[in-house]
Amino acid sequence: VQLQACGGGLVQAGGSLRLSCAASGRTFSSYVMGWFRQAPGKEREFVAAINWSGGSNYADSVKGRFTISRDNAKNTVYLQMNSLKPEDTAVYYCAARYGSRWSARLDEYNYWGQGTQVTVSS
């Protein structure tokens, strides 16, 4: 599986962005898809994950502001980010984990995209 993330950019605090991650292959629905982020000087952290049927989970820091979704017909996962804060500034990565069980652990994801930069100005 190859993953290509896009949609990052510069936005003011309170603004919105939508990230997309396109996956290659014909078994996209067999994978849990996740979004992670890494801020400068910090470890990569879990943001959100979604299974094939749309069940989702979020980090506490983004609950109520971010929404993860997927379109299995288009092999694409999305991350809608609203009410952005400066602390959301990071490189955002999409990742794929084979199976139906979501996970917040980086080491349980098999495939990673290249990352897209999100910068939120105050």
Keywords:
122 residues, mainly beta, 7-stranded mixed sheet, 11 strands
Structure notes:
The protein has 122 residues and is mainly β. 0% of the residues lie in helices and 50% in strands. It has no helices and 11 strands. Strand 5 (45-50) and strand 6 (56-58) form a beta hairpin. The protein is globular and about 40 Å long.
Summarize the structure.
With 122 residues, the chain is mostly beta strands.
Please render the helix and strand layout as text.
Layout: E1 3-6, E2 9-12, E3 17-23, E4 31-38, E5 45-50, E6 56-58, E7 66-71, E8 76-81, E9 90-98, E10 111-112, E11 116-121
Parallel strand pairs: 2-11
Antiparallel strand pairs: 1-3, 3-8, 4-5, 4-9, 5-6, 7-8, 9-10, 9-11
Average predicted local confidence, pLDDT:
95
Rg, please?
13 Å
Helix content, binned percent: under 10%
Report the sheet-strand fraction.
over 45%
Largest sheet: 7 strands, mixed
Low-confidence stretches: none
What shape does the CA trace take?
globular
Tell me how many strands there are.
11
**Helix-strand string:** EEEEEEEEEEE
Number of helices: 0
| Helix and strand composition category | mainly beta
The N- to C-terminal Cα distance equals: 37 Å
